[in-house]
Amino acid sequence: MLKKFAPLMLLPLLSFGLHAMEAKPTTNATLNVDEAQLKEIRIQSQLGIPGAQFDLANYYELQGSDNDLKQAIELYELAANQGLKEAQNAIGLMYDEGKGVTEDDAKAIEWYQKSADQGHAEAQFNLANMYAAGTGVEQDFKKALSLFEQSAATNTQAYYVVGVFYFNGYGVDVNKETARTWFQKAADNGDKQGMKALRTHYFKQMKMH
Questions:
Q1: How far is the C-alpha of 53 from the C-alpha of 36, rounded, in Å?
Q2: Domain boundaries, the chain
């Protein structure tokens, strides 16, 4: 399951005068199940099937009460400890936002890292956010860019962010042509900030290939 959009302040595109970015793919899409399906998910969860534990955790998380969130955390951890990368990212988010638990940047980073190491695009993006902002870890633009680029392999939300890094030289040499390429990818996928970047005077004057 993909994670729905939730805000986290990133780096402003200062050279353009654009507003600060907010980008962070998190929290699960709504789990649409009927009572019979939910009963089966519960049974499979009790049998220790990580995918079912994750789905049931998602269901409880979406209910939103304190007790439901507590059950969600417990189930996410059961699935995460069996190596389910989606659950590891979900727990990271819970600690990142203080949802159902005390906010804990160190634990968020730990779980994001485990998920990112397995190639989970949203976890790579979330972890990159932490390094870009210096939240719970020493700020490291080079590390952040590497993670954003890894995420961009399957996560279109990373396109604009990578463009920002190349435009401003965050963790990499300034490369306006490479930045334009990433902004174009973002715009082609309907990203409004990517579109706005391409509408600037600078990019209007660049030779389009």
A1: 16
A2: 3-30+83-205
- Which is the CATH superfamily of the domain at 3-30+83-205? Tetratricopeptide repeat domain (1.25.40.10)
Asked if 95 contacts 107 with a C-beta cutoff of 8 angstroms, the reply is yes
User: Which stretches of the chain are assigned E, i.e. beta strand?
Assistant: 3-5, 25-28
pLDDT of 201 reads 63
Contact 15, 167 (CB under 8 A): yes
Percent of the chain at pLDDT above 70?
83
Q: Are 57 and 90 in contact (CB under 8 A)?
A: yes
Q: What is the mean pLDDT of the chain?
A: 85
| CA atoms of 62 and 78, how far apart (whole Å) | 18
